[in-house]
């Protein structure tokens, strides 16, 4: 996937959208604050004041991830154009579609800020916000070809779970109080408790499951601290051991050379497709030949660990023996700890076949 920076016209349009969304969010927040101040200036503390306070807190835990997510999506998709989770052939969703959706989401957030004194209306707007976000995420997913968006799952559970509880509250509010505290049986208290718990829980799991999206491990460039995180693919394949029934047997020089030829050809094809690729076997096989003693897979994994830290994707070339390769499995585990799932690519995807003498020894089973 080629890396192309945004044109000046694109940057201008995105900047205008970010400013528009920022103004809407600021207006929504200001409206919620003013509404709360108006209520608090009126007499003694009441259950309505408690309700509005809780809804205001619910509004805060909702508006922050939505604003944060919008900024990150626009930057990665339309400015950086190197979203860390895009699959092969993935591309940005149409900017016009994002503009339209963000205007709708901004309007809903603004309305939520105006209805912090109405639990039923506030909850309905929150559900609408999540439903639209789910539909938009699925639409974007079609273009990105990324793994299934985790926030779709989080939002769906939040809508379904809170909807069931909201229905039960509506049916049983006002029934004899079981807990011994009559105020807990009131409809308004039950509603505001559900809203806050649902919104806070949704936002918590949104950040927890999508931490790398919200806070990417960007590299600081040397030119004044500019952030420009390259999307580098780590290309793994078996090398040191034979695999299969002979999993502990060292691979012969011919097998290692064929694996080197195969993974280097795969790296070349990926580079031609526009990927930035780090192929450890391509780099270290000549070094292996120059070493006095053949090294173990543990040695090579440790040597490549700093390179893995700089990569945001791992592809495993599924040459014979990859599943038994302790080196490949350790590389996969390292990326999984970074929250990155591995992708499989078959040798045939790159025109690598056993009838080619350069690769023949890599097909050993």
Helix content: 55-70%
Give the percentage of residues in beta strands.
5-15%
The end-to-end span amounts to 33 Å
Provide the gyration radius in Å.
27 Å
User: Looking across the biggest beta sheet, what order are the strands in?
Assistant: 4-1-5-6
Average pLDDT over all residues: 80
Written account of the structure:
- It is a single chain.
- With 365 residues, this protein is an alpha/beta fold.
- 60% of the residues lie in helices and 7% in strands.
- The protein has helices spanning 8-40, 47-80, 95-114, 119-144, 150-172, 187-209, 211-214, 253-272, 280-290, 297-309, 326-337, and strands at 232-236, 241-243, 246-250, 276-278, 313-317, 343-345.
- Strands 4-1-5-6 form a 4-stranded parallel β-sheet, sandwiched between helices.
- Helix 11 (326-337) links the parallel strand 5 and strand 6.
- It is elongated.
- It starts with 7 loop residues before the first helix and ends in a 20-residue tail after the last strand.
- The model is unreliable at 1-5, 175-185 and 218-228 (pLDDT under 50).
